[in-house]
């Protein structure tokens, strides 16, 4: 059972909220509901929310803005619901820190499966030891999900963090873009190759001394990406 996990569902369409709530409760989750951005932020600030299902088209504050506000407070996983299918809109959502994207109309059963997948990835990431590279230049604390560069804490979105973790735990392996999508976002997520490139660009700007001449996130032309750091003993 999942009755220690609190999920916040945010959508201004009451029918959609009711259906998602029923499926989540049937799967054993505790469910909180909100029908606009202000109500969602209020619930988030007063409850221990473990995951948010967030519609982008809200009547007061946009879903993107709600996502930005919440991610600035706590790196809680967010699955965005949207009728938007424009690639740039989806890229923008991931850049704001969304962990998954579901386009309306959608299968509620598939949405629940994605909830389970995101929560499973979060749980898996929390049980590993500290990783240190290049004599402590880059440190990843997988218990607290904190990343330090030159002993300074840096802020990564969950997708950026997951990409960094995937590459750094498999130093010698080259990952294609599709493999990174499968590892970081789940095999059933239909996204574009450009999303990985966008995350890589943002990640490099945060962890590299020179993002144009990276030493950690290396491009293997015609194939994908690999990790270039040296692991400390």
UniProtKB/TrEMBL annotation:
It holds the Pfam family Trans_reg_C. The keyword Iron-sulfur does not apply. Transmembrane segments: none annotated. The modification 4-aspartylphosphate is found at residue 55. It comes from the Bacteria. Keywords: DNA-binding, Phosphoprotein, Transcription, Transcription regulation. The keyword Transport does not apply. Residues 128-229 bind DNA. PROSITE patterns: OMPR_PHOB, RESPONSE_REGULATORY. Residues 6-119 form the Response regulatory domain. Residues 128-229 form the OmpR/PhoB-type domain. InterPro entries: CheY-like_superfamily, OmpR/PhoB-type_DNA-bd, Sig_transdc_resp-reg_receiver, WalR-like, WH-like_DNA-bd_sf. PANTHER family: ALKALINE PHOSPHATASE SYNTHESIS TRANSCRIPTIONAL REGULATORY PROTEIN PHOP, REGULATOR OF RPOS. May play the central regulatory role in sporulation. It may be an element of the effector pathway responsible for the activation of sporulation genes in response to nutritional stress. Spo0A may act in concert with spo0H (a sigma factor) to control the expression of some genes that are critical to the sporulation process. This is Stage 0 sporulation protein A homolog.
């Amino acid at each position: 059972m999942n009755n220690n996990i609190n999920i916040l569902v945010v959508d201004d369409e009451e029918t959609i909220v009711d259906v998602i709530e029923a499926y989540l409760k049937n799967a054993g989750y505790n469910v909180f509901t909100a029908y606009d951005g202000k109500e969602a932020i209020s619930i988030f600030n007063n409850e221990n929310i473990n995951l948010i299902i967030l519609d982008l088209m809200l009547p007061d504050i946009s879903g993107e803005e709600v996502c930005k506000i919440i991610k600035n407070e706590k790196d809680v996983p967010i699955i965005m619901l949207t009728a938007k299918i424009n690639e740039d809109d989806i890229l923008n959502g991931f850049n704001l820190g969304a962990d998954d994207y579901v386009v309306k109309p959608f299968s509620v059963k598939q949405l629940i499966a994605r909830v389970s997948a995101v929560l499973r990835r979060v749980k898996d990431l929390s049980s590993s030891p500290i990783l240190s590279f290049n004599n402590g230049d880059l440190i990843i604390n997988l218990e607290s999900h904190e990343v330090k560069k030159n002993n300074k804490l840096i802020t990564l979105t969950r997708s950026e963090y997951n990409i960094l973790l995937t590459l750094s735990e498999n130093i010698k392996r080259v990952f294609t873009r599709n493999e990174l999508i499968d590892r970081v976002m789940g095999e059933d997520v239909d996204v574009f190759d450009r999303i990985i490139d966008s995350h890589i660009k943002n990640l490099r700007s945060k962890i590299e001394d020179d993002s144009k001449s990276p030493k950690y996130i290396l491009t293997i032309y015609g194939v994908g990406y690999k990790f270039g750091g040296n692991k400390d003993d």
